[in-house]
Amino acid sequence: RMREATGQGMGLVDPATTFSESISAGRILMIEDRPDSAAWFSSALRKENDVACVDTFEEALVRVRGGDFDLVIVSLGMRGFDGLRLCSQLRSLPEGRHVPILVVVSDGDRRKLNQALEMGVNDYLTRPVDTNELVARVRTQLRKKRYADRLRHNVQLSLEAAITDQLTGLHNRRYMARHLDNLIEQSHRTAKPLAFLIMDIDYFKKVNDSYGHDIGDEVLQEFARRISANVRGCDLACRYGGEEFVVVMPDTDVPFAYAIAERLRKTVESTPVMVSRDPHKLGITISIGIAQSAGKNDTAEALLHRADQALYSAKRTGRNRVVA
Ligand code: GH3
Ligand code: MG
Ligand code: MG
Ligand code: MG
Question: pTM score, two decimals?
């Protein structure tokens, strides 16, 4: 193991013979400003990975910011800049937080190694670097990274699933309930009105009874699309239950909400829903109840109740109408 600090390992072990099992390529960024050392690492790793090498501080930051790396290897013996400082900068990047860092230190440089570990680098290698050890440590970091990525992805999916209605892709009732209190509180604080719409498809049971539940589902999906197309980005649209939908509109008074509701009602009335089976076109209508938040002591429950009363009144007085 009497190799030089740079260019070590070359000729001792042929990198090509050390990789037997093949896993999906890891994307590795090597940060080293001594060309022979960079070339050695690159040749040791490129058999089973995509390796990019950079030799300046700025370029390293830019590349990591661009995402797309599974592992960063930082030499702590560079001439041009301080690898430790780079590690700390990488750790503070949002894009760099989940990328493992492997540092390479000179044998005996305990001070640098301790600083690096303190900073939260994931693993280290000491020079002279042994090819097998390099490959093993890189594999371990890549495996952990893949596992962590998968975990994070799954968490993300289940978080989304928990607040999304599966049939329509709109928010679900749970999400609405969680946010309505905040929105009401915000409307009080900012002294701005908040409008609450509840919509119900007229005689929807007939759709199911005549054409089947799956055609009913298609109608619900199309109705949800029309709701989304008619509300603003700041409005909160959700499927409240079966064929009832709710839209919460911050900073909106009743006349404005009424205009939106009327536009939606007319669109639904005048544009039949295309469905996948006979009769292919279904005419439906909707009824809408509107309520506005009122005063400091108003609650989500009271607001919902008033909107529901308005909806009930719309149904009672003939359906296919908006009542505020
Ligand atoms: P109206 O509202 O005009 O008074 O009449 P309606 O027939 O729409 O009344 P109701 O609210 O009683 O019926 C709603 C129907 O919606 C009953 C139920 O079978 C149907 N439904 C609820 N959830 C779903 C769903 O996810 N898919 C389908 N296809 N139908 C659903
Ligand atoms: Mg209903
Ligand atoms: Mg009903
Ligand atoms: Mg209905």
Answer: 0.70
Q: pLDDT tens across 194-213, in order?
A: 999 999 999 999 999 999 99
How far is residue 68 from each of residues 6, 29, 37, 99, measured CA to CA in Å?
A: 28, 10, 23, 9
Q: Does 216 sit in the ligand 1 pocket, CB within 6 Å?
A: yes
CA separation for the pair 313, 316 (Å, rounded): 5
Atom of ligand 1 at shortest range from CA of 217: 29
Q: Is 202 in the pocket of ligand 1 (CB under 6 A)?
A: yes
Cis peptide leading into residue 279 (ω within 30°)? yes
Report the residue among 168, 243, 311 best suited for mutation to probe ligand 1: largest number of ligand atoms under 8 A from its CB: 243
Stretch 146-157: mean pLDDT: 94
- How confident is the model over 12-30, as pLDDT tens digits? 444 443 443 445 789 999 9
Q: Indicate the SS3 state at residue 223.
A: helix
Q: What angle do CA 223, 257, 204 make, to 5 degrees?
A: 30
| 205 within ligand 1 shell (Cβ under 6 A) | yes
Q: Which of 165, 200, 205 to mutate to test the pocket of ligand 1 (most atoms within 8 A of CB)?
A: 205
CA distance 273 to 163: 26
Going through the chain in order, the beta strands assigned E by DSSP cover: 26-31, 49-54, 71-75, 101-106, 123-127, 194-201, 236-241, 244-250, 273-274, 281-282, 286-292, 322-323
* Nearest Cα residue to atom 26 of ligand 1: 242
Which atom of ligand 1 lies nearest, measured to the CA of 208? Answer: 29
pLDDT exceeds 80 at position 3: no
What pLDDT score does 10 carry? 38
Whether the predicted pLDDT of 255 surpasses 80: yes
243 is catalytic: yes
Q: Considering every ligand atom shown, identify the ligand nearest to the alpha carbon of residue 218 and give its number.
A: 1
Its ipTM equals: 0.96
